[in-house]
Amino acid sequence: MQIRIVMLAALAATFGLWAADARAQAGPPQVTVAKPLASRVAQWDEFIGRFEATERVEVRPRVSGYIDQVHFRDGSIVNQGDLLFTIDRRPFRLAVDSAQSDVVRAKAQVVLDQADYERAAQLVKTAATPVRELDQRKANLDIARAREMAAEAALHTAELNLEWSEVRAPIAGRVSDRRVDPGNLVAGGQSGATLLTTIVSLDPIYFVFDGSEADYIRYARLSVGGQRGSSRDTPNPVRVQLADEPDWPHQGVMDFVDNEISAHSGTIRGRAIFENKDGFLTPGTFGRLRLYGGPLDALLIPDAAVVSDQAHKVVLTVGEDNKVVGRPVTLGGMARGLRVVASGLSPTDRVVVGGLANPFVRPGATVEAREGAVHPSGSQFAADQ
Measured in Å, how far apart are the chain's first and last C-alpha atoms? Predict the structure, then answer.
């Protein structure tokens, strides 16, 4: 066993010497270098959030009774005013009839008391009736008129309850499933009313996200400096990408920023609004949002020129002595088909843009550099604003 290990070690050493000798004979690896492209681009900041309905209503009955009919299909689209549920209307019709009879009775009493008052007024002029009798009849007339008003109010209430026995959609949108089937007793009123279903609006639709305090301060300074309007007053453009989308196809604008930064999370809530005429975007869906963050003087390099070094992003550069130097960089988004380098590079650095597949091209190695150039490969939305 020991003899075998020694032989393997000898073979490995021999192979290493052979590889080094072959590399020395072939000369230093060839790479293509180019200076970063300096350009003013639009800065886009990314946030995670979810879509929310602009309107959401819990449908509850205003009157109590037994559900007679359900007039919608679970999960369907409804328009404002569409009939959703019918509560047994017979008790409410009887209440309307009773209230109408009370109004008729009250009106008749007003007519009678009006006649009595007018007769008493004539008799008082001839001193045939004391003034006290006239005052009493005037009071009776006023009481009759008040009862007429109360009867009419009771009639309006009964008619309103009859109208409320038909539960209609208060907004347009997509309705959830029914929570109560026909034949069940539901409670109405201002508190403790039974939940029948819910409706959420679809078009337009909100996208809600949280931004950091640092982002908010940067945006505020840009607004004060006139470089970018505040999203409280300016419909700054946004794009959203869903989980299965390679690009950012959904376009919207900012329409709200909260009035304070949360003391618990150190974030501030923002909201964008999107058209959703086809109803594709659903409330509750998560997405990634890109918000226009103002102009940025940036350096652009091909995305393929960026390599990973454990937890860092690194760009390989070639110095005057033709040695490779790794530079940790902070990256931004894509602009004009190139990767934005926020920090870590200077405009005079010679970035390795070709030949990275060669395993011998690594920091500290000597290479043969050929000059190239960085060219924009497209006009993506992250480019000029």
Answer: 70
Please, are residues 316 and 324 in contact by the beta-carbon 8 Å criterion? yes
pLDDT for 142-177, tens place per residue? 898 999 999 999 999 999 999 999 999 999 999 999
pTM of the model: 0.70
| Token representation of residue 241 | 């990408």
The Cα 76–Cα 88 span in angstroms is 24
- Residue linked to tokens 């652009």: 300
Convert the pLDDT of each residue in 65-97 to its tens digit.
Answer: 999 999 999 999 999 999 999 999 999 999 999
Is the CATH number of domain 90-164 2.130.10?
A: no
CATH top class, domain 45-55+202-295: mainly beta
Q: Which two tokens stand for residue 58?
A: 């819990």
| Partners of 240 in beta bridges | 250, 289
The 10 Å Cβ neighbour count of residue 240 is: 23
Residues 121 and 131: their CA atoms lie apart, in Å, by: 9
